[in-house]
Amino acid sequence: MIPYTVNIKLAARTLTGTLNLQNKTAVDWGWQGLIAQGCHSSILIIDPKTSQTIQVLERHKANVVKVRWSRENYYHNVSSPYCLRLASGDASGKIIVWDVVSGTAHCEIQEHSKPIQDLEWLWNQDASRDLLLAIHPPNYIVLWNGDTGTKLWKKSYAENILSFSFDPFDSSNMALLTSEGIVFITDFSHSKPPGNAGKKVYIASPHASPAHTKPAHTAAPVPTGAKKALNKVKVLITNEKPTAEAVTLNDCLQLSYLPSKRNHMLLLYPREILILDLELSQTVGVVAIERSGVPFVQVIPCAQRDALYCLHENGCISLRVCRSTITPEETTDPEQNVYELMYDLRSQCDAIRVTKTVRPYRMVICPVNENNAALMVSDGRAMLWELKAHKGKAAVNPSSGLLPLYTPVSFCGAPLGPNQKRIQDLSLNSMIGQTLIAGEALSPSNQQEVQLKFLLTGLLSGLPLPPFALRMCPPLTTKNINNYQPLLAIGVSLRDVVEEYLTARLRILTFKTCCVCVCLFDRGIEWVSLTSFLSFATSAPNNMGLVRNELQHVDLPTGRCFAFRGERGNDEPPIEMIKVSHLKQYLVVVFRDKPLELWDTRTGTLLREMAKNFPTVTALEWSPSHNLKSLKKKQMAAREAIARQTPDVFLHYSLLQDAESKSESSQAISAREHFVFTDMDGQVYHITVEGNTVKDGARIPPDGSMGSIACIAWKGDTLVLGDVDGNLNFWDLKARLSRGIPTHRGWVKKIRFAPGKGNQKLLVMYTDGAEVWDTKEVQMVSSMRIGRNVNYRILDIDWCTSDKVVLASDDGCIRVLEMAMKSASYRMDEQDLTDPVWCPYLLVPRAALTLKAFLLLQPWSGTFTMDITQVDYNEKDEIKGLIQEQLNSLSKLFGDESDLTFWTVAAHYLQSFCQGSPAESTKPSPQSHLDICHDVLCESSYFQKFQLDRVHLQEVKRSSYEHTKKCADQLLLLGQTDRAVQLLLETSADNASYYCDSLKACLVTTITSSGPSQSTIKLVATNMIANGKLAEGVQLLCLIDKAEDACRYLQTYGEWNRATWLAKVRLSPAESSDVLKRWAEHLCSSQVNQKSKAILVLLSLGCFYKVGEMLNNMRHFDRAALFIEACLQHGVMETSFVEYDRLLRSLGLREGAALWASRAGSAGEELMEELFQGDGSSTPSRPAIKSTAGGAA
Fold first, then answer.
1. According to the lineage, what is the superkingdom (predicted)?
2. In Å, how far from its chain's centre is CA 1097?
3. Fewer CB atoms near the end CB (10 Å): N or C, the chain?
4. Residue among 478, 492, 501 nearest 556 (CA)
């Protein structure tokens, strides 16, 4: 008979536990919708929707310190598909770029051997999406090609670099947080390293800056109360190194640009957040914590709204929203009219219980919706919070200046209907409206007042602290296959026993023993059935070296737990091991300095306590052989003999059944079993147990080549012994042969045979690792050694199935590995997860694009459907089970950053231009403008209001002559000449610029619109520009209303951003359109290569035909066709329809292909004939469709 092995399909996986301190900053939430978290040297991939770990990446040899998801800000097609790509850096300086789906490393990068300080993927150019910027200690920034691992350039700086932040509005600007100050870089480029060392600035208090006297405004009240308190913490940026009394960056925790508005930055300190205006080089807002408040740990600024997510030391997450600069009419106290950027607390979640080992590490928010946050705790927990908006009015003190929050007035450019009160909580910008600025009207009547609250939607827990004790439940056999569940018992500290369901469901059950001593921990576990086990623990020894032993029996179905040894266990030597016999009949309890005890596991009675002269046991193992089968045959024969003596057939049957039931209920069968053990001298003893009878057997003298025996394993005719010197002795009991193998690996801690008939694989645990041996061939199959293969120490081992091992390690992880004991990373698409995961990135590229095309727009059918079963696509079964919820925004659903940005801007301006002429669209209704996070893409009227509001704030916060001069210059460019003259006249007489400022004030006041004066000023401005005085010349041109010429000069000298800003605030729509079109052409040039940004600029100008043409030339056929469909009044581009038709045909969407072919003119007729040539159907007429500008978004 050929032996076979009954196996159960269990995938390799890693169960993680507590985090290392170096993992504190190793967390990121990507546009793909997944969270990456470093745990020691592993990386967890968490799905926040289902709160489950879907992948564990293992290749690092050191602790992971940084992780970064790649950005999705590019056009996706078959050649550039949706992919899960992650970069991670560890404490040894190695960077690995991962293919997360397959669990393999795409490339490895090594520059230095110190921990990586920061990582970031570049997202702001169309040339390549593979560029990865890294900080290598102490002072190097290196740009890598993340696809090939090639170093593109390297730049060093004078100070140690701690972190960096990119300007989200201008990719050439970045800031480095160093040990002494901030370094601003304005010439960052992917093609070459920065040309200079950057501008280095310091943070200092006002009295540490050069002496200056700020003229007191006659109308301004003396600062008292709130304003006086704010001035105490007011700081400014200087070019001089601060003195010892100044506020420095030593305590600065974080530096970050604000993605909600341009040229603003935040600095995080433990007890305050500083908001800096980089044009003014001055703080314009402070978020300070009261003396009794909880300090900050981290701040994440939002892009969709001017809001801050704050993490505190007690694990509380708070949301602060920027206060409106519109003062409520009820406010009459002048003290409350302080003009500041203030961030009011709008919501906060519950805090966690902080201890020495439990602390909040980091917080991440969803970059797509910005209304979901995840808190990472040091004990391995991931707490998932969702921000919810609910109807209601808050009890706000009118004198506080705090305005209520209202819902937005529009969504995707379309205003709310008269009966539509609010939008669903899709994202932060659909929950609350924008912060009002000066000059804007208050909320319309159809807006609802809302309050925000955090709701805990998910909790992912890790394993407790090691050490661990492992024991897999009895193996799967043909007898228990109907009710078998693969359970792994894990003994942990504080007497917790964790049950892991390793297959379909990862349920964690915790049972706590009723022990009052908190220093106890489980030292060993033995299963007595498929659903119950024994675990033992010992307390700390007393003065006499005696302990309190506990041996607990746990029944999993009922949760019942009781002391197996009853009242025994007080003041006795500690238990060394427990061993349950092969038939689960008997239990041997081995003590350190006390004879062993033999128990009956079925009745819980003590069978024998050995004599005091019994040898000291060093290792023990039960034999797999027994006489149960022969006993059952004898009992069955006896019952049949009794039944044959009874003539009545029915009585015969009842007697037979009654005998069997009595035998099973009373457990009358006590089979004979054997066990062997060794003493201190290495002598082997054989003991036979049958019922209450215990008999001594043969004694085998010690082997001279072996040291003190540490462990024994017995299966079939093979007995293996391991000693403290690393020797393995293989005994063939049938052939009466033995063979010793010196492994030279030190103490053999544990050996276990693999389950399954005929499976003679042996798992061996050493102090420095583990090995798998084939006892038939007596040769090693695989090996794992600390420092060579892995960087963790193994605490316990066992077989999970016949071909997989499970290891417990000192990094708090439990690993289920293949027999080769290699990496535990696995393919995500092959896992049978607890809950289905919505992630299109897990699909093959063609399947993901088919799903997107199907869900995006279905004009070929009368109604929108989510039933994909009718699609002629071979792999549709991969997609069919993923569609489970109502789709509101496909770009957000796919985490497609490029798509989301495009359709947000397109939907807004399509709606805006369709409501009226382009000229009229520049005067939007209240709050119907594009969000200010889009900067110059906003309507000119709102952009100008925002800039006026900003310069007003700068004027209030100025504290030096340089600040006053910058404010006056900005006011002149904005056309606010009266206020600019007042600031110019504030210059003190002892200032070196007093004479020039006075003359400039006179010039601004007396300027006329006559021809000669304008010609003279224009000539002077031209000469100044030609001689390097660009800013001064531009000011003069703006004074005579020649802002268009000023923009042209700025663009000529490469000041494109400044020219765009000036055009938005000073020029008419037609004039500014010409300036922005030239800027778009510049963005399309090969030197800049930002065509995606150029398309957004053209969208804001209403150049929809040009946008469609550019999309087609960039081969973005699906986006081009859908965009043109959304603006049919501008004509049809047949080329886009032809290419999109071919794309839909390749994806199997025949009805969609027929629709677009019908719109492609003569070229489409040929496509229609090809499409319906095979089925003999007639060419369909063109279906009627509706314009769906907002639906594409």
1. Eukaryota
2. 32
3. N
4. 501
